[in-house]
Design a protein that fits this description.
- By secondary structure, the chain is α/β, with parallel strands linked by helices.
- It folds into two domains: 225 residues, Periplasmic binding protein-like II (D-Maltodextrin-Binding Protein, domain 2), CATH 3.40.190.10; 135 residues, Periplasmic binding protein-like II (D-Maltodextrin-Binding Protein, domain 2, 3-Layer(aba) Sandwich).
- It contains 13 helices and twelve strands.
- Helix 1 crosses helix 3 and helix 6 packs parallel to helix 7.
């Protein structure tokens, strides 16, 4: 059913994208299609706001196609029926070829960043206040919600625990059916913690319950803790969280987060067009920064040139002109491009993919991927 819905969305996107980039190669296109989260999401609203800016200054018709899940957002990009995706962290998983991308219909994706939005929300373990957790080390022996069928959420929990040198083996795993259920389990006294954004409705519900809410901090001056967490999940950055439930705006907690949305394209997307879009988003930032919730995070100074994914050649060209790209950024870029190449080569070399069951392919690919990255002297991250 998911893939049937994906095919329908891809068809809709194809109609919107048919007259896009090629009609005006090397500049801001007159028509283009971006995929994004659902219509009620901040990412969708931001894409619409950026589209209005492009319409005003360049006459561009940007059609934003909402997708309910990672597959429906990224399939049009994979199939080159949409030029861009205002994606979530799934873009990173796509680069790595893990989770939903460890599938014969996917495999590692040649994704490149244009820009990212780094907001003031936090991502952390939300705990019941009565559980007595004040530091990540206090999580040892606590009950933690483990969401079935959501490996990305559970991976985030593992990364947070790694801050204190802990793993899933150091906590009590409480299996739940979904994200909302992970917080229901805390409220009902079955669990003590779950992973979430500070702006999600679920922590707000916990805060209003008798158990209360407390975010587990990851102190920014704890060098070793950050080394451990970054090794487990290189997508994380430091943030003094200023928005969300039980967040003290006068003394913002030391938490972590990663960008959302992440504006990405395939490596084959026209470099001149990418350059023009990035330049437009930077130069006309004032036009959309207040037009959608969270859009302030797109500002040029927020861009991290040494993040977990490589930038598109067109974006690199602009950042060089803007004085934001240096030798260290280029060295990091080269490493990431090499990493993508290693992963892609390993995928192409894996024989018998088409005849394997999903479970067998996931297992075989997991081993091949880890072996290839280790042989290249690179950290597999996802073991």
């Amino acid at each position: 059913m998911i893939f049937k819905k994906t095919a329908l969305i891809a068809g809709l996107v194809g109609a919107a994208f048919a007259l896009t980039s090629a009609a005006q190669a090397g500049g801001v296109p007159k028509k283009t299609a971006w995929t994004a989260y659902g219509t009620t999401s901040s990412g969708y609203a931001q894409a619409v706001a950026i589209g209005n800016m492009l319409k005003k200054h360049y006459g561009t018709n940007l059609r934003v196609i909402p997708g309910k899940n990672d597959i429906s957002r990224m399939a049009p990009l994979r199939d080159k029926k949409a030029g861009y995706c205002a994606c979530g962290i799934a873009a990173y998983f796509g680069q790595e070829g893990v989770f939903i991308f460890a599938d014969k219909k996917w495999g590692p994706q040649p994704i490149r960043i244009l820009m990212t939005n780094i907001g003031s929300f936090g991502l952390s373990l939300a705990t019941a206040k009565d559980a007595g957790v004040k530091t990540m080390a206090d999580m040892k022996g606590k009950r933690v919600s483990w969401v079935q069928g959501a490996p990305a959420l559970n991976w985030n929990v593992a990364a947070q625990l790694a801050f204190a040198g802990l793993t899933w083996n150091d906590v009590e795993k409480v299996k739940v059916s979904g994200f909302a259920a992970s917080f229901d389990a805390i409220i009902n006294g079955q669990s003590d913690a779950a992973f979430s954004s500070t702006v999600s409705p679920s922590p707000k519900k916990l805060a209003a319950s008798p158990r209360g809410l407390r975010w587990v901090p990851v102190p920014h001056d704890d060098v070793e803790g950050w080394k451990r967490m970054s090794a487990a999940a290189p997508v994380y950055g430091k943030v003094r969280a200023k928005i969300g439930s039980e967040v003290d705006k006068k003394n913002p907690p030391h938490l972590s987060n990663y960008p959302y949305p992440i504006l990405v394209a395939n490596d084959t997307q026209d470099a001149g067009e990418v350059y023009a879009i990035v330049k437009a988003m930077v130069e006309h930032y004032d036009d959309y920064k207040g037009a959608a919730k969270g859009a302030l995070g797109w500002k040029l100074d927020n861009q991290n040139m040494q993040w977990a994914m490589p930038y598109h050649d067109g974006a690199v060209r602009y950042y060089k002109e803007a004085g934001k790209w240096d030798a260290a950024a280029q060295k990091h870029q080269d490493m990431l491009l090499g990493r993508q190449a290693v992963i892609k080569k390993a995928w192409n070399a894996l024989s018998g993919k088409d005849s394997m069951s999903k479970a067998d392919l996931k297992a075989a690919w997991g081993k091949a991927r880890v072996a290839a990255l280790k042989a290249a002297g690179l950290d597999p991250i996802f073991n």
